[in-house]
Write a structure and sequence with these properties.
By secondary structure, this protein is an all-alpha fold. Among the domains are: 94 residues, Alpha Horseshoe (Serine Threonine Protein Phosphatase 5, Tetratricopeptide repeat); 92 residues, Tetratricopeptide repeat domain (Serine Threonine Protein Phosphatase 5, Tetratricopeptide repeat, Alpha Horseshoe), CATH 1.25.40; 115 residues, Tetratricopeptide repeat domain (Serine Threonine Protein Phosphatase 5, Tetratricopeptide repeat). It has 17 helices and 2 strands. β1 and β2 form a beta hairpin. α3 runs antiparallel to α4. It is elongated.
Length: 466
């Protein structure tokens, strides 16, 4: 059984290393999207593959996604504290605060451009995105959105230049390739229309009776002698006048009417085609907005995760250095969201909680019990409020029950009821919840009896005055 477990672990590590090498090859040829997929697979097989995690951070950084890169490096640093390149990367980013601020401003401007697009301000968004891509040349999503908007506004040549730059940043990005394919299709369609227009201009046709006569727009004149030219001219004038009067005038009128009808039909088809293209582009733009919103939410989650990791690491450093007392450390540890931590980080959090918070809770709870037994309820309340502020669920509801009882003994019935209800909500079907419910029922009954007694005394006083 032991050998089987070792073999299985070895296979997982080999698979992780295989996908890391694949990601490294793709990153070297600027196939960043392929590299992200390969490196994520590597981490699925071995989440502690430091080289894969650090490289994933570099790939994110290369696409202008700085926050995502920092998250990967912070996790890497937490998994391996010594001799880790992640610490160097984090330090470099933090040292250049102005560059980090510029990246943050670029992301904000990008998000504002999405809002402008949603409100119909494509022109304003294009101007803003041009500034963003000039300031942050590696911001892939900004290049993609700028290319899409230029396509949408008919600026195909500029769109091609922008999309080429995006393709150089990430050679296999699916979104960029889709836009380039759509741009090529638009170019082909535009060329076909120009060819049709050119062919129409090269020949002039009109109807003569039941026959269609096609006359070239440009004809070369044959050399003729002066006499034959004059004779032909006179004959042509006579025949032409007759033809014009009897045949061509009615035929031209009919041809004009047919051309007008055909022109209206062509314009209608053009308008329908343009509307269809606009709808397709709007749908694509809407999909891009949704993806951007999801990316923004992911970025916010990543930022919160980063803050929790940083807060946890700071508390750990402060605890080791003994610079602060347990009270201060406990308050700083409360800022850490344990739900977003990885396995190793959660283990560190639990260890710090036991070392820092538990002694404070025990000390304060014992002190509150002594104050309660001495009927010093105000002091007991103050101490217990500190306890539940650090850990509301301390002793599985006993701390909250004692606080509620102190409130009741001190005449603060509203707060007593509030805390009894908290116990019932947080610990249903437990002894603590049953004790809280019994105390709550008794408190409500006493309150009703007091109200009834007060009402009776008021009525007796009124009768005595009569």
């Amino acid at each position: 059984m032991g050998d089987t477990g070792v073999d299985y672990t070895k296979k997982l590590r080999n698979q992780s290393n295989y996908w890391y090498n694949d990601g490294l090859k793709k990153a070297n040829i600027r196939d960043l999207s392929g590299a992200v997929i390969a490196l994520k697979r590597s981490l699925q097989y071995n989440r502690a593959n430091i080289d894969a995690r650090n490289l994933l951070g570099l790939v994110y950084f290369g696409r202008g996604e700085v926050m995502e890169a920092l998250v990967e490096w912070i996790i890497s640093k937490n998994l391996k504290t010594d001799d880790n390149l992640a610490e160097y990367f984090i330090t470099k980013v933090q040292e250049n605060a102005s560059e980090l601020e510029a990246v943050d401003q670029a992301v904000k401007k990008y998000n504002q451009c999405l809002v402008s697009c949603d409100q119909g301000g494509e022109d304003l968004a294009i101007l803003q995105l041009k500034k963003v891509t000039a300031e942050q040349p590696s911001f892939l999503k900004a290049h993609q959105l700028l290319g899409l908007l230029l396509m949408h506004t008919g600026q195909y040549a500029k769109a091609r230049q922008v999309l080429k730059r995006a393709n150089k940043l990430d050679t296999t990005n699916e979104m960029t390739l889709r836009y380039m394919h759509e741009l090529n299709r638009m170019y082909a369609k535009k060329a076909e229309k120009m060819k049709e227009e050119r062919e129409k201009q090269e020949a002039i046709s009109y109807n003569l009776g039941n026959e269609t006569i096609i006359q070239p727009a440009k004809t070369s004149l044959k050399e003729r002698t002066l006499g034959s030219a004059v004779l032909n001219m006179l004959i042509g004038l006579l025949v032409g006048a007759a033809v014009v009067w009897f045949l061509i005038v009615p035929a031209v009128d009919q041809s004009k009417a047919e051309k007008a009808n055909q022109r209206d039909k062509t314009y209608s088809e053009k308008i329908a085609t343009q509307k269809s293209q606009i709808n397709a582009m709007q749908q694509e733009l809407e999909e891009y907005r949704k993806e951007s919103e999801a990316a923004k939410a992911a970025q916010q989650d990543a930022e919160k995760t980063k803050e929790s990791y940083e807060a946890l690491l700071k508390v750990n450093d402060d605890y080791d250095s003994r610079r602060y007392g347990n009270t201060t450390l406990a308050k700083n540890l409360k800022a850490v969201n344990a739900d977003v931590l990885g396995e190793e980080a959660k283990k560190l959090y639990d260890e710090l909680h036991v070392s820092i918070v538990e002694p404070i809770l025990q000390k304060n709870y014992r002190s509150a019990k002594r104050s309660y037994n001495a009927e010093d309820y105000e002091t007991a309340i103050t101490t217990l409020e500190d306890v539940v502020a650090l850990q509301e669920t301390y002793l599985d509801g006993d701390a909250l029950n004692l606080l509620a009882e102190c409130y009741a003994k001190n005449g603060q019935n509203d707060k007593a009821i509030e805390n009894y209800n908290k116990v019932i909500t947080l610990f249903p079907d437990t002894d603590a919840a049953r004790e809280a419910q019994e105390a709550l029922d008794e408190l409500n009954a006493n309150t009703q009896n007091n109200n009834a007694g007060t009402a009776g005394n008021t009525q007796d006083q009124a009768q005595g005055q009569q």
